[in-house]
Amino acid sequence: MAAAEQTHQDRPLIEVKDVTKFFGPVVALTGVSMTVNAREVHCLLGDNGAGKSTLIKTLSGVYQPSEGEIRVEGAPARFTNPRDALDAGVATVFQDLAMIPLLSITRNFFMGREPAKRKGPFAFIDMKHADAVTREEMKKIGIDIRDPQQAVGTLSGGERQCVAIARAVYFGAKVLILDEPTSALGVAQTSMVLKYVRQVRARGLGVIFITHNVRHAYAVGDRFTILNRGKTMGTFAKSEISLDALQTMMAGDKELQDLAELEGTI
Amino acid sequence: MADVPAAEKTAQSEQILQKTRDERMKRQTRGRKFLQHPEFGALAGVILVFIFFGVTAGDSGMFAPDGVLNWSTVSAQLILIACAAALLMIGGEFDLSVGSMIGFAGMMIAIPMVYFGWSALASTLFAFAGALAVGFLNGWIVVRTRLPSFIVTLASLYILRGLTIALSIVFSNRTIVSGVKEAAGDSIIPALFSGIAFRPLFVWFAEIGVFDKLADGTPAVQGVPAVILWALGLAFIAHVILTRTRVGNWIFAAGGDANAARNVGVPVTRVKIALFMFTAFCATVYATNQIFEFGSAASDRGLLKEFEAIIAAVIGGCLLTGGYGSIVGACFGALIFGVVQMGILFTGVPNDWFRVFLGAMLLTAVLFNNMIRRRVTGER
Ligand SMILES: Nc1ncnc2c1ncn2[C@@H]1O[C@H](COP(=O)(O)OP(=O)(O)OP(=O)(O)O)[C@@H](O)[C@H]1O
Ligand SMILES: [Mg+2]
């Protein structure tokens, strides 16, 4: 058992090997490779249209890679839909949030995996249990909800992100993919989400964290992969690269010159 | 400020966060929560309508036993299709072909029975199978093409109505097929769909003087029409499915945000197709009740019923954009509809005013629902 766990730890949770994705004539990804280990926050950085969302959508079963391979814990994985990926332990919080604002927190939390309670030939949602679990799980991350039946729309953006993440963690995700979880958030809300990402890592999950904001990435990231026009520009450990260097890499040389002319700081 | 230690700073911001969060939660008072139930507006409407007609038509016999029977039967018929429309609307789709489906299903029962000599059971089963197939097709086209269901079912509206008229002329050379009751013989089907339940109970009621007796000694109200039982039964099932089962959660999800729902593994395609099939099923129950009630099928049956169903659902608090609403609300909506339609007859007001009222009611309901929605989603 111990030995098995050992090899488990050594093996990357996810390996992406030379993945290419075409949309008709559009080449969104060309030969992208990266690995994600347990207990690591792997940041995926890149400009608009670099292919970040496309890459994670191929990881989460929304798209299938045109070429290349994805391995989950060493075994080749071919997800035909998000459900397959979820079952393999790859959970994604999409940029366009997978939350339904008009529905209650509980109903959102258990969406697609509602706990059933049998009564004769009928199966009903065990709402009491679901409410209790939701309240409990939200409490763990420091959000005290009085009424789990209140609509998700009444939560703040940061709280909503946290519900989405808590849901993935609760349902046994091994890898958590977050597509720009902080892009729409203010300072306090961002720190709340970043804090929670660290907490998730401490629980032994691997996290892929996608962002434009190098600062946010540097605050939680262990490794950084930079994507540019569908290609990887390399992966760097935090010890190998400074915040400034990362900034420069991400912006690309030409753009940075333009920025220097504008005397802007980002 | 600058010399505050970092740890203390985070603790402070943590406290502030906590405070603001709690304040937000406190706004959720009990009264407000009640207001947020989708059926609240419709319940208020029902009460208002009853008060109004209680005052203006109190002595017209509207609230005598046969008067009650009158408007509750009309309401029940509408409940049948309003519940289906509500589920479908919550699931994010419309079905404009409900009215045509009623006419088509009626013909699917009447023509085989009257012209091919099929039994009532066989032709009724045939009609249900046919309707479910049409419902499936509607749903399948909508989810496959991702076209708005409004357009797809508008096409079905015309195709089904056209087929109903054309086929009835082909087979019977007329647009009304009568003789259904005779063709049914002593089959149980007519009783099942248009019979009257609890007769002995009502005779007894008349004996002890709850109701008046007619001249021939039969009670003024003979029992509960089957359509009322069907409506309540289907409404109950739909309500339980929507609020208590996984499928119900998926219906809300499919209508709230189909993509988000798919991303967490909800079988949106299956849910939507099933909802279209359920709608066709309910339309067929309606049709079966009608043809055995009248003893005939007519190719113009169910005209404009799709709008009445949608109006009842909207008055009942369903959002046109999907993802929100209730069956109880849709039933209230149908009740308002039935009470006003019949109440206007009882008060002797020209029937044209019914439409004016209906339009005004619809507009009020939509405005109200919009407000509720904004409140539920935190005015965002
Ligand atoms: N479904 C699609 N069909 C055609 N082209 C697509 C599709 N999805 C993405 N693309 C293209 O692929 C490229 C990468 O897009 P992607 O959404 O992955 O970028 P991104 O890095 O997530 O950008 P952002 O930071 O703006 O979210 C873009 O040029 C985009 O136009
Ligand atoms: Mg993106």
From TrEMBL, chain A:
Gene3D superfamilies recorded: P-loop containing nucleotide triphosphate hydrolases
Species in which this protein is naturally found: Dongia sedimenti
Domain ABC transporter intervals: 14-254
One Pfam short name: ABC_tran
Family matches, as PROSITE patterns: ABC_TRANSPORTER_1, ABC_TRANSPORTER_2
UniProt cross-references to PANTHER family, sorted A to Z: CARBOHYDRATE TRANSPORT ATP-BINDING PROTEIN MG119-RELATED (PTHR43790), SUGAR ABC TRANSPORTER ATP-BINDING PROTEIN (PTHR43790:SF8)
Keyword rRNA-binding tagged: no
UniProt keyword list: ATP-binding, Nucleotide-binding
GO molecular function: ATP binding
SMART domains: AAA
UniProt lineage: Bacteria, Pseudomonadati, Pseudomonadota, Alphaproteobacteria, Rhodospirillales
Domain of life: Bacteria
Protein name, as recorded: ATP-binding cassette domain-containing protein
Keyword ATP-binding listed: yes
Automatic annotation (TrEMBL), chain B:
Chief location of this protein within or outside the cell: membrane
Membrane protein topology class: Multi-pass membrane protein
Highest taxon, organism lineage: Bacteria
Record flagged with keyword GTP-binding: no
Transmembrane segments: 34-56, 68-91, 98-118, 124-143, 150-171, 223-242, 271-288, 309-341, 353-372
Lineage: Bacteria, Pseudomonadati, Pseudomonadota, Alphaproteobacteria, Rhodospirillales
Keywords: Cell inner membrane, Cell membrane, Membrane, Sugar transport, Transmembrane, Transmembrane helix, Transport
Native source species: Dongia sedimenti
Name used for this protein in its record: Xylose transport system permease protein XylH
Function: Part of the binding-protein-dependent transport system for D-xylose. Probably responsible for the translocation of the substrate across the membrane.
Subcellular location: Cell membrane
Region (Disordered): 1-23
